[in-house]
Design a protein that fits this description.
- The protein has three helices and 29 strands.
- With about 400 residues, it is mostly beta strands.
- It folds into two domains: about 100 residues, Sandwich (Immunoglobulin-like); about 280 residues, no CATH class.
- The strands form seven sheets. It has an eight-stranded parallel sheet, with helices on one face. Strands 1, 4, 6, 8 and 9 form a five-stranded mixed sheet that branches. The protein has a five-stranded parallel sheet with strand order 18-21-24-26-28, with no helix packed on it.
Length: about 400
C-alpha cells in the first residue's frame, strides 16, 4: 500500500511602494509589479532555487519543497525609479518549513529615489506669485535613521526653541505644495501649525532701485577702487576702500560694481563692519562668506545672484553656514547644482535671500543611481537656510528708512 504526501509549502507576498507608506499601511500603498523574489534552499541536498515574479497587483506566490529553510532575496525592475534595496522587510528574509503544506508570507516595501528638498530653520518665507503653485518641494514623509532632520520646510531654530518654526506668505490665489500625498501641507511646519497666509501685498518692492535711491548713489556712482570685477579674482574684501574711522562703529558705506561680479576668495566680515554693495549685473558667489555677530553685509543686484556649485559641504548633517548676509536680486536667486545626479554638496545659508523674479534651488545628493547617495535625500535637505535676527538690528540706517505709500481713498 502506498500513500501520497504533499511535500510542498507556499511562499507568497506583496511588493508595495513604501515611499509614503509603512508595512501596516501596505493595503493603501501602490503596488509594484515585475519584481522578483529568489528563494534559495539552505538545509538539504540537492540545493534548489525558486524564482517568483510579482503580478499587476504586486503579488508573488511560489510552491517550494518542504520541509526546508529558504533565504530570500528581492529585486525590483530597472528603470522604475525604486532604490535597489527594500525600505521595509516586513517580516524577514528567512522562511523555515518543518512540515508539509505550510505557508509563509513575506512582504516588501520599496522606496523611490526622491529629489532633494530645502528647509528653513527659525525663519519665515514668502513668495509673491498671485496664483498657481508659489512654493513647491516634495518633503520626504518620514524620518530615516536617528538622529535625522525634522521632515518639514519650516523647522525650529538650531536651539529647538518652541514656536520658532515660522510661517509662509504667498499671493492671494497661490498655493503651497510640500508632498506628493493627499495633504499638500502635511510637511510644511515642524510643529504642526502649518501657518501660512495669502497676501495681496501691493507695497513698493525693496529691490535694487529702491535701495539705490535710499543710498543716493546718483547717476554716476564711483566704482569699487582697486578691485577686479568678474572673472578670476572677483571682488576681494581687502581691496575695498577702508571705512571712515570717525564713525562708531566705522561704516564702510555703500560700494558700486558696474558689471557682472564674482566672489572667488573667502570673505570674513568683522563684527565692527557694515558693508553694502550694489552690483549692476549678475553676482556669482564661488567662495564662503561669513559675517560675525554684530556685523552686516548686503549684496543688491540688478540681475541674478548665483551660489556656485562648489560652495557647500559634504557633511549632509551640517548646520554651519557657508554664506551669510543679505542677498537681494532683481532677477533670480539660484543655488546651482553640479548637474543631474552628480552628488551635490549641501548648501547652508544664514540671513536673507531674495529673488524678486524667482528662487531656484537645485542641490541633489544623488550620485547616479547609487543607493547610499539616494538615501541622503530622505535624511537631510539639499539647501538649509538659517535666520540671522542680528542683521535686522545691525541694518545700516539708510536701508532701515521707513517706506510710506500714500493713496487717495473714497471718503
Amino acid at each position: 500500500m502506498s500513500q501520497a504526501e504533499n511535500c510542498l509549502g507556499t511562499i507568497s507576498g506583496t511588493y508595495f511602494d513604501a515611499t509614503d507608506f509603512t508595512c501596516p499601511q501596505m493595503a493603501l500603498a501602490p503596488k509594484v509589479s515585475g519584481g522578483t523574489t529568489q528563494m534559495d534552499s539552505t538545509l538539504y541536498a540537492p540545493p534548489i532555487t525558486y524564482t517568483a515574479t510579482t503580478n499587476s497587483n504586486g503579488v508573488y506566490t511560489q510552491s517550494v519543497r518542504s520541509p526546508e529553510t529558504y533565504a530570500l532575496s528581492e529585486t525590483v525592475p530597472a528603470g522604475t525609479g525604486f532604490l535597489a534595496i527594500p525600505r521595509y522587510i516586513c517580516t524577514s528574509n528567512i522562511v523555515s518549513f518543518t512540515g508539509q503544506g505550510e505557508a509563509a508570507t513575506r512582504d516588501y516595501g520599496w522606496w523611490k529615489s526622491v529629489p532633494a528638498w530645502f528647509q528653513l530653520m527659525g525663519g519665515n518665507m514668502g513668495a509673491e506669485a498671485s496664483s498657481g503653485v508659489a512654493i513647491q518641494t516634495y518633503v520626504p514623509s518620514s524620518c530615516v535613521g536617528s538622529p535625522c532632520a525634522p521632515r518639514a520646510i519650516l523647522a525650529k531654530d538650531t536651539a529647538g526653541t518652541t514656536g520658532s518654526s515660522g510661517w509662509v506668505a504667498v499671493g492671494p490665489s497661490a498655493s503651497i505644495v510640500t508632498t506628493t500625498g493627499a495633504s499638500t501641507l502635511a510637511n510644511l511646519n515642524e510643529e504642526g501649525t502649518n501657518v501660512y497666509a495669502q497676501s495681496a501685498r501691493a507695497a513698493r518692492r525693496e529691490n535694487y532701485g529702491e535701495f539705490y535711491r535710499r543710498f543716493s548713489l546718483g547717476f554716476d556712482p564711483s566704482t569699487l577702487s582697486n578691485t577686479p570685477l568678474g572673472g578670476v579674482g572677483g571682488i576681494t574684501l581687502g581691496n575695498l576702500a577702508k571705512p571712515d574711522p570717525i564713525g562708531s562703529p566705522p561704516a564702510r558705506g555703500a560700494y558700486y560694481a558696474p558689471g557682472d561680479t564674482t566672489i572667488a576668495s573667502a570673505w570674513s566680515v568683522a563684527s565692527t563692519e557694515k558693508i553694502v554693495i550694489f552690483v549692476n549685473g549678475n553676482l556669482t558667489i564661488a567662495a564662503p562668506i561669513t559675517v560675525a555677530q554684530g556685523g552686516f553685509l548686503a549684496f543688491i543686484t540688478t540681475s541674478n545672484i548665483t551660489i556656485d556649485s562648489s560652495v557647500g559641504t559634504s557633511d549632509t548633517t551640517s548646520t554651519t553656514p557657508q554664506v551669510e548676509g543679505v542677498y537681494i536680486a532683481n532677477g533670480t536667486f539660484t543655488v546651482a547644482s553640479k548637474g543631474v545626479k552628480q552628488g551635490d554638496l549641501k548648501f547652508v545659508g544664514a540671513g536673507t535671500f531674495v529673488g524678486w523674479t524667482g528662487v531656484s534651488l537645485n542641490r541633489d545628493f544623488r550620485l547616479g543611481d547609487d543607493t547610499t547617495e539616494g538615501l541622503k535625500n530622505f535624511d537631510e535637505p539639499g539647501e538649509l537656510f538659517l535666520a540671522r535676527p542680528d542683521f535686522v538690528v545691525n541694518l545700516p540706517r539708510k536701508m532701515a528708512r521707513p517706506v510710506i505709500d500714500w493713496q487717495e481713498v473714497a471718503p
